Amino acid sequence: ESEHMEIPEQHYKVVARLPSSEFQRICRDLREFGETMQVKASKEGITFSVQGDMGAGNVLLKPREADKPEDKVSLTVHEPVTATFALRYLVNFSKAAPLCGSVELGLGPDAPLLVKYDLENSDNGHMQFYLAPKIDE
């Protein structure tokens, strides 16, 4: 059962750019621990964490320079954001990694997560996925 919603124009509080292969690996590895991933972003870095019955795992990515632009991790943080998302959808979104060297994540409080892949040749366009945060009940 899925619901289609209109996505309003967003001004994200956090925009992160990281290697798409690294994002794919993080999603796949953390999927082993549980079904829900918390994403916490601040000026220090972006943390992906999962707690489940099998244990817990977390990965912290700090901003870094690299020789190749697709290996760089950059963060633009207007205010810290913490949100929780269903990992199974993020694993599916990350399957687009081979199409592009890097992925852009847009985070905001109570806003859908943006997962954006600019296709290798910028003339080819981009792919955007949106995922609503999980709400604590």
If helices are DSSP runs of H or I spanning 4 or more residues, what is the number of helices? 2
Radius of gyration: 14 Å
- CATH architecture descriptor name: Box
**Strand count, sense and closure of the main sheet?**
5 strands, antiparallel
Q: Strand tally, please?
A: 9
Run of helices and strands: EHEEEEEHEEE
Number of domains: 1
Average pLDDT for all residues = 90
The amount of helix comes to 10-25%
Topology:
Blueprint: E1 14-19, H1 20-31, E2 36-42, E3 45-52, E4 55-61, E5 74-77, E6 81-86, H2 87-93, E7 102-107, E8 113-118, E9 126-131
Antiparallel strand pairs: 1-5, 1-7, 2-3, 2-6, 3-4, 7-8, 8-9
Helix pairs in contact: 1-2
Brief write-up:
The protein has a single domain, classed as Box (Proliferating Cell Nuclear Antigen), CATH 3.70.10.
Q: What features would you highlight for this structure?
A:
137 residues, DNA-binding, five-stranded antiparallel β-sheet, globular, mainly beta, 2 helices, Pr_cel_nuc_antig_C, nucleus, Proliferating cell nuclear antigen, Proliferating Cell Nuclear Antigen
Give a written overview of the molecule.
The chain has 137 residues and is mainly beta. It has a single domain, classed as Proliferating Cell Nuclear Antigen (Box), CATH 3.70.10.10. The chain has two helices and nine strands. The strands form two sheets. A five-stranded antiparallel β-sheet has the order 5-1-7-8-9. It is globular. It starts with 13 loop residues before the first strand and ends in a 6-residue tail after the last strand. InterPro entries: DNA_clamp_sf (IPR046938), Pr_cel_nuc_antig (IPR000730), Pr_cel_nuc_antig_C (IPR022649).
